[in-house]
Structure formats: structure tokens, C-alpha cells
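User: I'm preparing a small set of examples for a lab meeting where we compare how different chains pack in three dimensions. I only have the primary sequence for this one, and I'd like the structure in C-alpha cell form so I can line it up with the others. Please keep the answer compact; I'll paste it straight into my notes.
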Amino acid sequence: MDGDWADRELEAGETVRYTGGLRRGEGVAVTDSRVLVRSADELLALPYENVSEITTESVDWFLALLSLALTGVGLVSLIQGRNPLLAVGFTLVGLWSLRRTYRHRDRVRIHLHSQPKPVTIFPVAVDDLYPALEEAIAAVREDRA
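Assistant: Understood. Below is the C-alpha cell output for the 145-residue chain.
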């Protein structure tokens, strides 16, 4: 991924701590004073003073197990020949739910004071992004104290 876009968006005196890719979008950059999230059509700048909480979610295992169970029930019903239309429906809904659960893995939610709905991103390397975010926010809060 090309990290030059983050350098072009910097303010005077600001440095980039981390640059990484997003699964849906172009990238995310952690700077000294804000998080930059670049998608195909917009650039979000989230100052750390506005961030109330950052959470990560690896995989919703409960939903994954329910999706597998729904798919299994549909397949067993299809094999046994009971109501094939309903069995195909159960199988398709279970597979769709499993695909959706997989696509929402490693979700990072950035909760802001100014918005009721958090900003949700799906980084390629959440294990690299999260520590960089924690370190940058801790530094800003330490400077303010």
C-alpha cells in the first residue's frame, strides 16, 4: 500500500506514527494528534481530543457458531428430503451469515464524543494498528494532563 497519501494530508509539525491498509478502503494513518481514515470518496480526520474509546472485535464466535448450526440444519434437512425449499433457505441464510461474520472480523470501532455512532474500520493488520493508536492517544492525554 502506498503511504504517501498520509504524508500529503499532514499539518505543520505533525508526524506519522503508523500507516496501514484497510480491507474496505485505501488506508489508515496514526499521527501525533489524529487518526486519518482514507476511503475511496472521503478522508476522515479524527482528533484524539474527540476520541472517547477505541474497541476491537476479532470474531463474533457466537454468531459464527449459530451460522454453522443453521447451515448444518439446512444440509441435514436437505439430505433427508424434508421440505427441500425450506432446507435450501436455511442453508443459504446460514452460509450468508457465516460469510458476513467472517467479513466483519478484526473490526476497530472509534467512539467519538461528537457522534453517537462510532467510526468503524477494518484494518488489514489490527495487531499493528491498535498498539499504535493506544500509544498515540496516551501521549496526547499525558501532554494535556
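A couple of notes for your slides: Residues 81 and 87 are 9 Å apart (CA to CA). Residues 4-58+113-144 form a domain with the PH-domain like fold (CATH 2.30.29).

User: Perfect, thanks.
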